[in-house]
Amino acid sequence: MSSVTHKPLLSDDEVARLCAGSGEKLAQLRERIRSYGSALVAFSGGVDSTFVLKVAVEELGVRALGVTALSPSVSPDEADEARALAAQVGARHLVVDSHELEDPRYSANPTNRCYFCKTELYGITERVRAEQQLAVVLDGFNADDKRDHRPGHQAAREHRVVSPLGDVGLTKNEIRAWSQRLGLPTWDKPQLACLASRLPYGTQVTVERLKQVGAAERALRELGFKVFRVRYHQEVARLEVSADELPRLDEPQLRAQVDRALKATGFTFVAVDLEPFRSGRLNDSLGRPAGVALPVMS
Fold first, then answer.
1. Diameter over CA atoms, the chain
2. Domains identified in the chain and CATH numbers
């Protein structure tokens, strides 16, 4: 089987340059978090929320609490990793259930689906914050997120959630660089999103479909792929793979393994997208004129 050597997302020189240029932002972040006195961090285990939780623990100690909300939209692997990361940074940590799939506005999968998901999440974190007598809820929204379609941030504003990374202007790459300096394994972690993001807007979100996509992506990880998405198109699994991993699929044996693995999760056809994976592709369709159909895959 062919393998691929994963190139780090940032070189050592890039890490040094980014840290040198954003030291004042980090100082502002620490001061801001320290000023709250206590905080609940909405903690997914991703790059951004792990960094916020790490800094919160360093500045607030036991007065910082990470809260992870679990539902069928969250990959079981991500849930396990969040628990391990919270322990690694020494954070108090709670895992709670969320029920966004019970909201028909969410399950209908509109273009603002994330708003309803985050409304559920921040309702939960606000209740926990009040119960634990903490001052504020923090999220991982960063400066780069302002350039993407982020309806969930509206829910954050409505619930008075604070976004300290975005407030001090820290970008994704700066967060990665400082995460490496702080020894966080997430510094080089691929950008992730909930499993519902694998379904095109307007396709009903169901537990069965989320489980199918989650199982397909776990199978690909077991085959050694790192940066990818399995997009759900009814009978078709459309596989997006990073540019450096795409050549692996030229090998017949591995390609056959991928085909079998994804069909075993319930897909009838497996297609490889010729455009390499990039974050935010789901939102490309938002710019299409009304009534323009997407290409049909045969």
1. 58
2. 12-188 (3.40.50.620), 195-287 (3.30.70)
In this structure, are residues 205 and 113 in contact, taking their beta carbons and an 8 Å threshold?
Answer: yes
**DSSP state at residue 3:** -
List the structure tokens of 63. Answer: 């007065």
Q: Could you give the strand order of the β-sheet that contains 137-138, starting from the edge strand earlier in sequence?
A: 92-97, 64-70, 39-42, 137-138
Q: For CA atoms 260, 74, 193, 54, give the dihedral sign.
A: negative
Name the residue with tokens 């390499």.
276
* C-beta neighbour count of 262 within 10 angstroms: 24
Structure tokens at 17: 């340059």
- Pair 42, 140: CB distance under 8 Å: yes
Residue 281: phi and psi, rounded to 5, are: -65, -25
β-strands 92-97, 137-138 pairing: unpaired
Interval 32-78: pLDDT, tens: 999 999 999 999 999 999 999 999 999 999 999 999 999 999 987 88
